[in-house]
Here is the input.
Amino acid sequence: MLVAIIAGVAAGCLGTLFGVGGGIFLVPVLQFVVGLSFDSAAAVSQITIIGTSIAVACTDANRRLANVRLAMTLQVLTLAGALAGGFLLAVIPAAIEQRIFGITAAVIVVVMLRRLDIRNIILDVGCDVGRLGARIADPESGCEVSYRVRRWPAAFAASTAAGAISVLGVGGGVLIVPVLNAWCGVPLRAAAATSAFMIGATAIPGVVAHLKLGHLVVPQLAAAAVLGVLAGSRLGIWLGPRIGIRSLKLLFALILVAVAAKYLLFLGQPGGSR
Amino acid sequence: MARRLMQVAFAFSTASLVIGLLGSSVSGHASWVNVIITGLASLVFIPVIPVIGACIDFLRRKEWEFAAASIAVLALLAYALSRLS
Here is the structure.
């Protein structure tokens, strides 16, 4: 129980600091330290994602930045992806699920180390932003700026894929945020806020699928992890402006490389099966 | 309105999880697990609230395409949650 709380705090804190979601850290700890099966660990992680999403979405700054029109449009696809992922969960072997989880960890390392943070802003507030664009307050330029959403097919594809992998206990933001920022013209902070608005609802089909398959075996563990993640998220929000992120980022990247290696190279080892 | 409702529901589910976890750790009685399950269940339903809020906003502003998208989202969520029963 204590391990679940500590892992939850660490996952929530790191997830908030780096904006990648804590599930990628929580699932291996619950599987290899606490001794849960991969599916049970993913089920617990999936519930913590809902908690993190609500905690982040409730903040004032996030509400002003979230693009609800874009979120609702993409949400149809993330939910369709999550429902498909929920059905696939029952038929895909655990070894494949863990391999996908390992690949996701590797993708997160690359995304995190090469965080693009393309500005994507238009200083002319009066310009036409289209149906999905928006105007936001930009702290760097100190005024209101605009952005347009481009390359919708990329956003649609990333949203569907993000929904499908979310059933593995990883928040879909890891795919949605970089795609919206790098390819679709959305500023990073707006992309992160929009993703936070979406991932709570996206996690629901996954939670239902895990519950139906009987993966949530110890509710106390889920409660402990959720409370830990909530506390960790607060800690991450407080720590963000106070610590040097660079060295911590490298440490987190090393942990993720180890996680990716464990899931991709050591399948079939004790603790690696369902 | 939706935000206030979300905060109240979030406070309720967090309190249920804390009370259930403490009760379960101290007394070990099985009934505390029900309190935890209530907390987890309410947590799972909370993300539906902002979607309903967004849908009402879109309908008020007559942004029909986004209202349709949010209704589709609600339908998919209803389908997902109905699979629990």
